[in-house]
Amino acid sequence: MSETPPNRVGRAGPLFAGIWLFFLVDPLLEGWTHRDEARGVVGIVATVAFATAYMTLWIRMRQDRARLVADPPLSFTAPYLGALVVLGGVMVACLGEKGMASVVYVAVAAVMVFPLRLAMPVVAALVAGSLGLSAVEDWGSQVGLAFGIMAASVAIFGMRTVMRRNIELLRAEQENASLAVENERTRFARDLHDILGHSLTVITVKAELAQRLLDQDTPAGTERARAELADLERLSRDALADVRRAVEGYRDLTLPGELARARTALAAAEIDARLPNSADEVPTELRELFAWTVREGVTNVIRHSRARTCEVRLTPTAAEVRDDGQGCPGPATGGSGLAGLRERATAAGATVVTRQLSPGFSLQVVR
User: Fold this and answer.
1) Full residue range of the structural domain in which residue 79 is found
2) pLDDT tens readout for residues 30-82
């Protein structure tokens, strides 16, 4: 289902606004009554032009609201309002009392486009002018018209206040969305650096070492070069797998990624993190299991330990998360997270070892 572009005006809005042009029917009828006279023709033309200018202004203002423009510049709104004032004056001059219907629309337009400090004097002047002109021309009491001007102005002011609040909320949402995207981009770049930075450095060093060993052209050097190249291939494959998982959206765990997230989570919990700089020495078949170990261990440290320091140790055969907190709050068997870790360890031929320290707690997976 396609969405309407934010700067596109829906059909219902102008139709709703156009309904209120019904009050210009009386000036049109008055002009039609005097269609044989110049003032009647001019009055009809002025009324139609007035309605057109009013609707054009209303549609432009609606487009600005859709673009989250709360206060359009006076250079844009002043000509429209000036045209309404001139056309309204022509209507009053040609059609008499019936032309006074235009005053309400001028007041509404003023409140719609001007800040309150400018709109209120305009509305007050229109009310005073309507009452004074009716007295001079002996048109009878115009209290109803004055009340209509004030009521319509208050209503439009309330609507504009609501729209302004909505615009502010939309702007805040857009800013939050932009910040979220920027934070995610920064986090991804940081994690990608943590995942690849050390691995690429080690790969480069090993490639240079293998090149030098091959240049020696000795049996021992050749054998050592083969070992370095095999290790180089393993590191490259592991780094490629880690990057693929990261790009896929962290649906799978990676050991470098978990170390990067552990550093962020521990810093947020104000726990001093002591983490290895790389995971290159961990064999490929144990990297996912050790990633789960780091995730489970760090999560428990943050939730339960009240520790000041958390340390992660990695070797080719073991991963350990230890802290200096209050120790395991429950039985040594742990909760569902630790049970799941035991299942994964068993499937990989490893063992989960938990120990109470003095002070603190240790979670270790050993194969």
Assistant:
1) 12-140
2) 889 888 889 899 989 999 999 888 888 888 777 776 666 666 677 777 788 88
Three-state SS annotation for the chain: CCCCCCCCCCCHHHHHHHHHHHHHHHHHHHHHHCCCCHHHHHHHHHHHHHHHHHHHHHHHHHHHHHCCCCCCCHHHHHHHHHHHHHHHHHHHHHHHHHHHHHHHHHHHHHHHHCCHHHHHHHHHHHHHHHHHHHHHHCCCCCHHHHHHHHHHHHHHHHHHHHHHHHHHHHHHHHHHHHHHHHHHHHHHHHHHHHHHHHHHHHHHHHHHHHHHHHHHCCHHHHHHHHHHHHHHHHHHHHHHHHHHHHHCCCCCCCHHHHHHHHHHHHHHCCCEEECCCCCCCCCHHHHHHHHHHHHHHHHHHHHHHCCCEEEEEECCCEEEEEECCCCCCCCCCCCHHHHHHHHHHHHCCCEEEEEEECCEEEEEEEC
Does residue 100 lie in a domain region?
Answer: yes
Which pTM does this prediction carry? 0.44
Ranking 42-51, 265-274, 349-358 by mean pLDDT, the lowest is 265-274
Q: Is residue 19 one of the residues assigned to a domain?
A: yes
Instruction: Provide the pLDDT for residue 247.
Output: 64
Of the residues 140, 175, 195, the one at which a domain ends: 140
Phi and psi, residue 201, nearest 5° = -65, -45
Query: Of the candidates 120, 140, 160, which is a domain's last residue?
Result: 140
How many independent structural domains does the chain possess? Answer: 2
Nearest to 98 by CA among 19, 30, 21: 30
Whether residue 321 is contained in a domain is answered as: yes
pLDDT (0 to 100) of residue 315: 93
- Tokens 């320091």 appear where? 309
Note whether residue 23 is domain-resident.
Answer: yes
**Section 160-189 average pLDDT:** 78
Name which residue leads in pLDDT, 320 or 269: 320
CATH number for the domain spanning 279: value is 3.30.565.10
pLDDT exceeds cutoff 60 at 286: yes
pLDDT band at 340 (very low <50, low <70, confident <90, very high): confident
